[in-house]
From TrEMBL:
Organism placement in taxonomy: Eukaryota, Fungi, Dikarya, Ascomycota, Pezizomycotina
Organism: Glarea lozoyensis (strain ATCC 74030 / MF5533)
One family name in Pfam for this protein: 2EXR
Protein name as it appears in the record: 2EXR domain-containing protein
All copies of domain 2EXR, residue ranges: 5-105
Length: 202
């Protein structure tokens, strides 16, 4: 029996659209690999002193992850639906001349939805990075406007027990990493260790 439904093109456009959309889902929380350099020194907008500075955690320094969207290559109709889904989920289409499809789909880190992953041996570097940044040459001797505490927007911390050996960043020059997410974590154990109350985001 053929797996194809040859009468699909004869269905009403609205029904075809619903069928295409049913093939997509909201991406689960995705792992992004930690690397230093996220703390930025910027002018403080909440101070009358023009020399006042603020530390900003710039999550855009983290490499994007690659997504597979096979329906993008089915036909024009499916591609239009795929692009609409990509816009809703902040997925970007990037040309890549080295691949047969010549297109790569990348998704930037979303601090509200995604997970920042770091190996155990980098945890201390991550925890101290904001403090150490205050002793850099461009920060010494200058007034720094800071919040009540570091990482006040951190909501959940996952402790991954015995992570897979291939759960690590790839350095291929494209700044796009393979995709890992919490659904994949069925292969290993995850534990939420603590959560900051919601008022920290208010």
């Amino acid at each position: 029996m053929s797996p194809q439904f040859h009468l699909f093109s004869l269905l009403p456009p609205e029904l075809r659209t619903q069928i295409w959309l049913s093939a997509f889902s909201t991406p689960p929380p995705t792992f992004y690999f930690y690397k230093p350099g996220a703390w930025k020194l910027t002018p403080c907008s909440c101070s009358l002193d023009s020399s006042a500075l603020d530390f900003v955690f710039d999550h855009k320094v983290y490499d994007a992850v690659q997504l597979d969207i096979p329906l993008f290559f089915v036909n024009r109709e499916a591609r239009a639906i795929a692009r609409a889904w990509m816009r809703e989920n902040d997925v970007e289409e990037v040309e890549d001349g080295e691949r047969e499809e010549r297109v790569v789909f990348r998704k930037e880190f979303n601090p509200v939805k995604d997970v920042l992953f770091m190996p155990y041996d980098q945890w201390e570097k991550f925890a101290c990075e904001g403090v150490n940044r205050g002793f850099a040459n461009d920060a010494l001797g200058r007034y720094l406007h800071s919040g009540e505490q570091w990482y006040q927007h951190l909501q959940v911390l996952y402790l991954i027990i015995d992570p897979p050996s291939d759960l690590r960043p790839v350095n291929d020059g494209m700044k796009i990493q393979p995709r890992w997410n919490l659904k994949d974590s069925e292969e290993f154990e995850t534990r939420p260790v603590f959560a900051v109350k919601q008022s920290a985001l208010e």
